[in-house]
Amino acid sequence: MRAVLQRVQSGAVRVDGEIVGAIDRGFVILVGVGHGDGDAQAQWLARKIAGLRVFEDADGKFNLSLLDVGGGCLVVSQFTLYADARKGRRPSFTDAAPPQVAEPLIARFADMLRQAGVPRVATGVFGARMQVEIHNDGPVTIWLDTDALPADEDRSAR
């Protein structure tokens, strides 16, 4: 799985002009699913995001996590994170998992964030044409990729 986190003051997703998900302070998470991804990768990603210390403490240092600040997450499916643009001018998306695999895994990922203690988890609509509002805070943008983990790491244990 791949995720791009943007620390935000607020974020929202609209479908057909209607807000379908919104958060205040926290992360907008653009998340993609690749072939072979499953619950272990989703669990690792959810735990990592919940505990990632990228919010400032009283001294302005990145010492606080999403859980520490009571922030929310807005999860937006994004198969284009698996774009391969090495050849030609039109990206290939063959590395992205098919919708029947990706959709339920992204829903489980959102549930895993809730189970990790994230107080507010909102989502977009899988497969819909969405307009995403991101009010960056910093800006702070983090890229996470479960494929980049060492092969011997137990992804479900972290």
Plain-language structure description:
It is globular and about 50 Å long. The protein is built from three helices and eight strands, in the order E-E-E-H-E-E-H-E-H-E-E. The model is unreliable at 154-158 (pLDDT under 50). It has one domain: D-tyrosyl-trna(Tyr) Deacylase, Chain: A (3-Layer(bba) Sandwich), CATH 3.50.80.10. It starts with a strand and ends in a 13-residue tail after the last strand. With 158 residues, it is of the alpha/beta class.
Write a compact overview of the structure shown.
The protein has helices spanning 39-51, 66-69, 99-115, and strands at residues 2-15, 18-23, 26-32, 53-56, 62-65, 72-77, 120-123, 131-145.
